[in-house]
Automatic annotation (TrEMBL):
This is Chemosensory protein-14. SUPFAM superfamilies: Chemosensory protein Csp2. It comes from the Eukaryota. Pfam families: OS-D. InterPro entries: A10/PebIII, OS_D_A10/PebIII_sf.
Length: 120
């Protein structure tokens, strides 16, 4: 789940930076906001415009190792991964089942995931 955070698509060399200034900490600190984003990603709830863009972009970002992510998106993604792995493994697992049913990305990003465990 390398880019569960702030990645949105456009056909240029990087995803749009339209939502780069979203307060990721505020989302992670609010169970209501975090659950809203996760429910959107899982198809269990309504999506905000930025949640919808994330949902559309996430598969590409995972497949291509976030190569089109801006620096802020990569930083936000790292923060989200660290939070989910360490503080919300239940949500991490649900997202992994949806976006990585064959464990391809979990294996590809194993070192990165292991590196953030315990560093919340």
């Amino acid at each position: 789940m390398a880019c569960v955070a702030v990645t949105w698509a456009r056909p240029e060399s990087t995803y749009t930076d339209k939502w780069d200034n979203i307060n990721v900490d505020e989302i992670l600190e609010s169970n209501r906001l975090l659950k809203g984003y996760v429910d959107c990603l899982l198809g269990k709830g309504l999506c905000t415009p930025d949640g919808k863009a994330l949902k559309e972009t996430l598969p590409d970002a995972l497949e291509h190792e976030c190569v089109k992510c801006t620096g802020k998106q990569k930083s936000g993604a790292d923060k989200v991964i660290r939070h989910l792995v360490n503080k919300r493994p239940d949500l991490w697992k649900e997202l992994a089942v949806k976006y990585d049913p064959d464990n391809i990305y979990q294996a590809r990003y194993k070192d990165k995931i292991d590196a953030v465990k315990g560093s919340a």
